[in-house]
Amino acid sequence: MKVIAFLIGVFSLSCLAATDSLTCNGCSTNGMENLAAFSQQRSGSSYVVIFDFDNRQVKKYYRSLRFSSFGEPISNAVNVELSYEEQFDANLILEFRQEVILLLKNKSVAMFVSNDAETDYMGTDSSQSIAAFSRVEISNQESTSSVLKDVGGFDVKGDPYTFLSRSSFRNNAFDYYLNQDGSLFSELIDSALDAVRIPTGKDMGLYVTINFYESADKSIYNGSVKAAIDFTNDVFIIMSAKDADNNSIPLKVSDLNNEFVFKNKSNGETIFLNYINLLFDSHGGHTPNCVVTSHRTQGDQHIFTYSCK
Length: 309
What we know:
- By secondary structure, this protein is of the alpha/beta class.
- Among the domains are: 2-95, no CATH class; 252-309.
- The protein contains seven helices and twelve strands.
- The protein has helices spanning 2-11, 29-38, 84-105, 160-165, 167-179, 185-195, 268-283, and strands at residues 20-23, 44-52, 57-67, 73-80, 112-113, 149-157, 206-213, 221-230, 235-243, 260-264, 290-298, 301-308.
């Protein structure tokens, strides 16, 4: 397998391993320079390598931090040339990411079925939703249109609300998707990235689309979730979620300010209000006053329109 050859090469890197590495996917030259300058946390100077996986660029900066006579911090970064060996190592990392993308896109994954999707919708474990609803945020990201690379996806029996609400459901799906063949693929990638001191696996900028269905025959579509892959922490980082009618599912408190539609079966109102409570529990604050503004049926589905204030 070609990616294993790249793994071996990454593990053997020596030049870049001695220098801090950061990612600034989709950044301009100014964005990369600013990230380099403000990443120097202590008085003094050092080198840092900035990866832009989206544009396949790697730049090295000499960064410094000093303080004025008034105690004001003065940060600076100057672009310097990579050595031949460093450029070779950087190219290896870029090609490694491309091989990971090809491998994930070509994965054949059967539908994932979890016991978590079969139980009652809401549990009592307060840890289920910790950090569950954070969107992907990349430092100094100037555009969200192209910085994340779609590597395909897989199907899951269940619904996106349960997936978002249960950490065990999400974690089991992650393990199934990446390591179902027993290869511990995510651990290998994590170790490889650590070899060049790239902070977290999500910095590779890869995401999957997870489609949800009522049953294994895929006759009833329940919605979808887009999630970035964090190889370091072995988790999906939720980017967006939609129900069966392509309505956006709120992922943070501010998403509840406007009226929106929620589609589910007859217990949909209870499910959604419980979801809102869980969402607020994960962020702190007070649960808004949400009321049903309209209700109609479509076949065996009940479609509720809510207004949350």
